[in-house]
Design brief:
D-Amino Acid Oxidase, Chain A, domain 2, 370 residues, 6-stranded mixed β-sheet, binds flavin-adenine dinucleotide, FAD/NAD(P)-binding domain, 8 helices, 7-stranded mixed β-sheet, alpha/beta
Length: 370
Amino acid sequence: MRVLILGGGVIGASIAYHLAVRGADVVIVERSAIGCAASGKSGGFLALDWCDDTPLMHLARRSFTLHAELADALSGEWSYRRMTTYAGTLGRSPTRAPRGIGPGWISSYVAIDGRLGSVGTTAQVHPAAFTIGMMRAAEERGARMLLGQATGLLRHGDDVVGVQIEEERLEGDAVVIAMGPWSILATLWLPLPPVYGLKGHSLVFQTGTTFPPEALFLEYAEPVGSMLSLEVFPRADGTTYVCGISSESPSPMDPDLVAPDDSAIDRLKALCDRMSPDLARAPVLASQACYRPITADGLPLIGAIPGACGAYIATGHSVWGILNAPATGEAIAELILDGAATTVDLAPFNPARLAAVDPKRVEVARRLRC
Ligand SMILES: Cc1cc2nc3c(=O)[nH]c(=O)nc-3n(C[C@H](O)[C@H](O)[C@H](O)COP(=O)(O)OP(=O)(O)OC[C@H]3O[C@@H](n4cnc5c(N)ncnc54)[C@H](O)[C@@H]3O)c2cc1C
């Protein structure tokens, strides 16, 4: 069976891996580069139980287990490691409270409020390396990548029988839409609910290997009253990733045109300077932005697309796409090859639960942005 996967982010690459393991003939169609969007620019933080008592619980727990197994089985070079995770507050003035726990490299502006996770419940990967690693593992099992922009679907009645890639037609038995926020384009082709993109900014510092595996989630009260949530992840490769400032600006239709807002980067850098003297003097390796894919109810769309035989979707993973990619890939492979997912119940993620978009509205928005 030939499966065409549209989008080479972490979700597309994970689906490719699980399908290739099971012997499917897999082609990923990627417009720019594997992991070029949010999958390459996210935090890569993983948590076992932070989605407990929500519809994501089983997907997250299964994924957390799979991450450990994949790193082990594939000798993954994506810096998988367990972490201790702390919650705290970044103040506008130094705190006098004595510090019992938390990373040693933070400044006196940071107060640690408690521990959010242990090495049993929190971990990390380097997200770009993980995405590329999944794609490589898929390629070793026969999958291949085709560089090109998916522009439409090939239909035969109600059946989806392939993909239009600009001037080229590529036939397949099944098509999976995994284009992150750009999956909105697929609402022109099929009855699908909208997928939005929420912009997030991040900085990557060259901090050296001295930072231990301790993640930080900090709250910061802005002078004007709103709260910022900052996430800080030292990585095994000697870098430290910090993200925290979102904006509502719409994503360009071309993933390569995503650029950070200067003012957001300046604010984030100033907060990092305050957070730690080590961050203040560390060289900045990357100042970047990316769009997390989100849906109207905050849950991903994972499953068969109603009314279009052979078409599937896997997107809208919001802040947990790196975590939830492995179990999403496994479940989509089961759905396509066995007719149903057995490792995770996909019912909460059924794309039919949300109203489909009127394609005319998408076309107008697309023209305005091109
Ligand atoms: C600042 C930030 C921090 C985050 N931190 C974490 C974290 O710590 N842990 C976690 O689990 N998650 C995190 N996330 C969320 C996570 O990054 C995303 O949920 C995930 O990367 C989405 O992956 P994706 O494959 O769905 O989409 P994307 O990574 O956006 O990939 C979509 C791909 O589709 C391609 N594409 C687009 N249009 C076309 C087309 N027409 N034809 C072919 N290809 C196309 C694009 O080029 C792109 O490569 C974070 C997100 C942000 C923004």
